[in-house]
Amino acid sequence: MSKPTLLLTRRFPDAVEARAQRDYITIPNPADTPFSGEALAAAANDGEVEGILCAAGDALSASTIASLPSSVKIIATFSVGTDHIDLAAARDRGVMVTNTPDVLSVATAEIAMLLILTAARRGGEAERLVRGRQWSGWAPTQLMGVTLENKKLGILGMGRIGQALARMARGFGMEVHYHNRRPLPQAEEAGAMFHADDAGFLAAIDVLSMHIPGGEATRNWLNADRIQQLRQGAIVVNTGRGTTVDDAALCKALTDGHLRAAGLDVFAGEPDIYPGYHSTPNLVLFPHLGSATIETRDAMGFRCLDNLDAVLLRHEAPLHAVT
Ligand code: DGY
Predict the structure, then answer these.
(1) Which of 241, 260, 297, 303 is catalytic?
(2) Where are the transmembrane segments (predicted)?
(3) Residue whose CA lies nearest to ligand 1 atom number 3
(4) How far is CA 188 from CA 130, 182, 183, in A?
(5) 3-class DSSP state for residue 33?
(6) Third-level CATH fold of 5-103+294-313
(7) How confident is the model over 38-90, as pLDDT tens digits?
(8) pTM, whole model, 2 decimals?
(9) 103, 111 contact by CB (below 8 A)
């Protein structure tokens, strides 16, 4: 029996590509930069492509999905987020979409914790000082940050990543609060305090960590009004999606001192970022590192292949269907 054809839109970890090559005829993207919609559709039309293994940087808009060949049965995204795929268009065309939940929760929570620590302890400024040969020696008031112990961490979106972060933050002696669609028994049992109302949640916390999905429903969730509801000197970090933050409002609050510091791993329109961010010293900037560990990226790739195998090799339902 001939192998199904799989389009790989990026370079994936070696073990993932090796397994894909073993079980499929693979069409690679040698450039390892995201395909444009036209290039993706052209590559998918170059053979009887049945599956697409894509990543968060690929834009699968309605028009791109409409120009895919009818042989495409499944799009497996190497991400938990699916805001880069027009899910309604995929559903209308009968193309399944799958994602990679669970396996990246700890790695992403680690990056949230790292951003919180780096923002609170001024790690970015400190590193730039030493690397730039500007450090003239220890001083009693140099680069003073704030201690996390006994501070209140507010988790916006208590999914798997938020729950992993709550476990880590408790190790630092932080009190955990959360705002979610509904209270979660496991979070309550672990002592996290649920806030049904976003204004009460924002007023109660010292550090806000954002874990909500992208898309129109959450665009600019953290706007100027909500930033003002945070305490003077609060810290904000975001490892969810950049579109959920009003960049101009965040930059202003960091500059005028309402916020002490912030840390961002995700950006609207990345890799381009809001121009004011480059020159804001109390802002830590990471290049979308959330899931970037060797173990996690292998696990994400294998999860994509598990979904592709179910649909294309065994003709079964996928394990992690989004549509
Ligand atoms: C995800 O999985 O959604 C991460 O942001 C990586 O794209």
Answers:
(1) 241
(2) none
(3) 81
(4) 43, 11, 7
(5) coil
(6) Rossmann fold (3.40.50)
(7) 999 999 998 899 999 999 989 999 999 999 999 999 999 999 999 999 999 99
(8) 0.96
(9) no
